[in-house]
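[DERIVE STRUCTURE TOKENS]
===
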Amino acid sequence: MTTTPLALSLGDPAGIGPEITVKAWRALRDRGPAFMVVGDAQALASAPGNPAPIRAVTHPDQAAQLFADAIPVLDIPLAAQVVAGQPNIANSGAVIRWIETGAGLALSGAVSGLVTAPIAKAPLYAAGFRFPGHTEFLAELTAAGDQDGARGPVMMLVAGNLRAALVTIHAPLSAVPGLLTVEGVVNAGLVTAQALKGDFGIERPRLVVAGLNPHAGESGAIGREEIDILEPAVRALADLGVDVRGPLPADSLFHAEARAGYDGVLCLYHDQALIPVKMLDFWGGVNVTLGLPIVRTSPDHGTGFDIAGRGLARADSLIAAIRLAAQIAARRCP
């Protein structure tokens, strides 16, 4: 078990975050990776199912020592009582503080990385949160653009041997063509190639770029984005030393034989990456933020308000996120 634990921010306490955190601890307590929860100890203690021992800690050094026997918690209390399935704007400030604290611990090196349980954006927006989500918030907290070689954030979804990075994230489909630029695709491609090498240990990463239009535009007959944006971006990436192919028709990129031919795929919009990831491993996919100076992963699902408090949530994705964060951290600091 690593001597430097991960931090795990608890996410929205009215969702399944507390429940899957307890289940992840039960699965990992004997062999690790160890993690320290940043959240409300009472919310964790109230998670459905068999109660788990909780121990308050003041520093990450204590977490690895305690982890086999109890869930270490850096206790930052909520403002209001939690009702399962009912997010409360009054608790938004604490949820934001949990993320800020976890990021700060990771930046300082006190923890080896940050794993974030799911948040609900609506109550955070109502409380004045101005970021589209975790990814953009963490980029600002860590000043990602000021780090050498870090041009993030870039979102990547991982399931088995599929690593799918995104050029645009939570944009309406109608807006995607207007958001694509040669510079943006090149930037995402460079960040992805760097991460495949440094974070995933692939010495000579092979990257493919998906087309936007059916049949990758069919030489302009079904759209010009491939000709005007994607082909120049692929040439620019190749000139920068990236082993890259594309744009290729997205409908033939994700079967097993195709996946064997590349190490990462650059997708252009949310569902182009998320659908194949969830088809390949619905329960165990992981969201990784590339291009940050800290390690950050999260489960590839939401808050699960509809099943919160009922003991039905599966922790597969959170467990996979914890394990992947530890693997990346080990590669960054061997």
